Task: structure prediction
Amino acid sequence: MSTAPTPPKKPSVRSLACPNCGGTVQIRGMGRTLSVVCIQCLSVLDATTPGLQILQKFQAKERFRPLIPLGTRGTMRGDPYEAIGFQVREMVVEGIPYQWNEYLLFNPFKGFRYLTEYNGHWNDAITVHTLPAEGTSGGRRVAVLLGETYKHYQSYQATTIFVMGEFPWKVQVGETAQCHDFIHPPRILSLEASGKENVWSVAEYTPGESVWSHFKLPGSPPATEGVFPNQPSPHTGAPVKAWGRFALWFLILLLIQLVWAIAHSSKTVFSQKYSFTQHTGQSENSFVTDVFDVGGRVSNLEVELSTDLSNNWAFFQLALINSQTGHAYDFSRQVSYYSGRDSDGAWSEGRKKDTVVLSSIPAGRYYLRVEPELDTERARVVANSVRYQIKVTRDVTTYGFFFIGCLLLLIPPVIITIRSMAFETQRWSESDYAGSSSDDS
Amino acid sequence: MSKPAGNCSNCGAPVVFQFSCAVQTTCSFCKSILVRHDVNLEKVGEVADLPPDPSPIQIRTEGIYRNKSFVVAGRIVYGYEQGTWNEWHCVTHQGESIWLADAMAQYAVTNLAAKPPALPRIGELYPGKRFDLAGIAYTMTSINHARYLGVEGELPFEYWDKDELVFADLRTEDARFATIDYSEDPPLLFTGESVDFDALRFKNLREFEGW
Result:
């Protein structure tokens, strides 16, 4: 057989008369055809008997029309195939019937293959000669074929509800098979048990567009609905890639932060201990510190308040004042620390220490104006006092940009992972395992 | 390759054995089945008209299996529930007999086991049965009740006039294939593998009108 573009050969057809209605019955599958359906009266006929003995007279309530007209030739995997048979099969889940279409394709040298279609999703199927190994993995049924592990998706009974064309077996409307589907996208492995024989087939997801181009069908294929069990995920590998990119950028950010930390001098320019006692009715407790030198380029200044508060709070009204220009940076801090023990054990809330970073402070001579304040109500009952230390550090390393950067970097991989998981959830939503989350792909 | 010639004991037509391993052939003129006894040919039966054949293989088709070229010398035709199937007797360039099965356009190459291990009896068969043959774990996939429909060409053993036959097909998880033919006692065991049509690189295939 040549694959060169030769003019299409005319299909060879044997024509016979239907013993039921007298209409013309065509046979394209040569000696391989065992049963054929009369296109006019839909009787199923025995193709092995000279007079086409009737196997089944009645037919389905409804006439179905194949999307690939029987007799159409197309190219599958480089070989010409002719659509010779069409059947509609049905499964019933919780009282709801689901129907799908199966096209039988024939090549006298290569034999048979099938195209199946459900909701616009197509699969190209062949029977397998290698016996899949059945087992369990992670508590779920699997089948291993040629080193690939297929996960059990669902088991169901398939009933043939409509037949057209010809078949290499004695087809009957109403015949049933017990089916078990296992998936390894883009492939699906199916076991059909008819009682006499167990037949395994493997199918590969095929976009409708390629079926249309293989068979040169007019128009466009029907749009797909939902996600098919073995439909390849558009997100395959994307989460891994996204997390890989995240890891790379995180390392770059970490490196920048390290350089940033090294570049900062973190020099203590002022440190002093104080104590304060709150008197009732006393409103003005402010004082100023000694003047200290703040050197270097314009940079940040960290003010740290370390207190000995215990089950108490303190409020500090602060101002950093440039002694030369008089420019003041006002800020205030509340420090509180509470702890205790209850039925759940020890607990604590707040911190005894507080730090604040003032950014863009030019070099110069500065002092702090400090106004501490404690609870006056409490001061009425007990002596309310606090001892604290003020420490001023020039040019400290800050982590704000680093954390914001990390959070921003997290957005794409998190979104991609959620999308990918949503697709997998949808994939499994029609399976025997719907609702149970167990996926790793 | 020896070609002992003789005459058909039925019609006198010249009969040539192309293959030294063959002991039986069919007279191409009168369809008598002839068995070779030293230099004499004995007519043991006649071939009825064979059913229309869907196989793309024919006598003299050539192919290559595992780097050995072979040519099709003869065949046995069976009828069963799913139509007809052919067991093509092929002879390699080294003179060995191998068998090429074509059932439903699915192909398998097998060899007749010279000393078969103990085989299960017919009554013990069911699809799904697992058992070991020479250390290989096989699963029985189907049991076919077949009818002998005829022979054609040269065969490596005497085989004619059979009735109802029982065959058991066995497969493995690594594409091995075996058939037990219960028409003989002890049964014949053929072991081999499923093969792709393309892998056999056939030449001189039948032509199908329109294909």
